[in-house]
Design goal:
It is built from eight helices and no strands. By secondary structure, it is mostly helical. Helix 1 crosses helix 4, helix 5 packs parallel to helix 8 and helix 7 packs antiparallel against helix 8. The protein is globular, with a radius of gyration of 19 Å. The chain starts with a helix and ends in a 10-residue tail after the last helix.
């Protein structure tokens, strides 16, 4: 993992919206299922959970060809509608991790790692995370997703999934950073402080959206009038 989940989620939304706009010819009618986009943005890092089985981080789950095979059935059924979601996954390693880390992007045809492999956190890392969050915020306001995601609507309940994923990643880095827990330096280094504040902002938004979805479950349906 080279970008934090903050950057991966933010840029997943940004790139998915951009690709959707290109496909639709710039029309604003198309909508994405944002919870799925955000989860796809961090899904390649699922390899972190299989280290005990010999799976090495930044290998096959960070390969373009791996995800192309995974998405092939969806592309056959949904065609162009699935492409923004594929972009949400691919940006994880073809944009974020490629600029900040090193990934096996051409697996299985090449076992070589590609990328800049810059230390984390670094100025470039924090700049990408911050730029992604700000750009995502601007887009989410401009295209009307903000109002929709903060409305009392059952469709916002799945926002709980990216919220839990983000919080889990925050806890992981807070107590399991190599050598010294990251939490020991959060407020002493400006780069780390910026990252923490960004995570708090995104986590708050996701939590409010999910809470609004859960609130819709308690809302009583409007009474229907009977006509003679």
């Amino acid at each position: 993992m080279k970008l934090f989940f903050l950057g991966h989620m933010a840029w997943a939304y940004v790139w998915a919206v951009i690709v959707l706009a290109v496909i639709s010819g710039g029309k604003r009618g198309g909508k994405l299922f944002v919870p799925v986009v955000l989860m796809l943005g961090v899904l390649p890092d699922i390899d972190l959970f299989f280290g005990s089985f010999g799976v090495v981080h930044h290998t096959f789950t960070h390969s373009f060809f791996f995800w192309l095979v995974i998405f092939a059935p969806f592309m056959l059924v949904y065609r162009q509608k699935s492409i923004p979601y594929l972009a949400a996954v691919v940006q994880h390693f073809a944009f974020g991790d490629l600029l900040v880390g090193k990934v096996m992007i051409l697996w299985p045809f090449s076992m070589s790692y590609f990328g800049l492999n810059i230390a984390m956190p670094s100025l470039l890392d924090v700049a990408l995370e911050t730029a992604g969050l700000l750009l995502a915020a601007a887009i989410i306001i401009f295209n009307g997703d903000l109002r929709r995601l903060l409305s009392v609507d059952k469709r916002n309940i799945p926002m709980l999934l990216p919220f839990l994923a983000l919080v889990a990643s925050m806890l992981f880095f807070a107590v399991d950073w190599p050598i010294i827990p990251l939490i020991a330096h959060i407020w002493s280094r400006k780069l780390l402080t910026t990252i923490v504040l960004g995570h708090i902002i995104l986590a708050t938004f996701l939590a409010v959206s999910a809470a609004q979805g859960l609130k819709a479950l308690k809302r009583k349906p409007a009474p229907t009038s009977k006509t003679a």
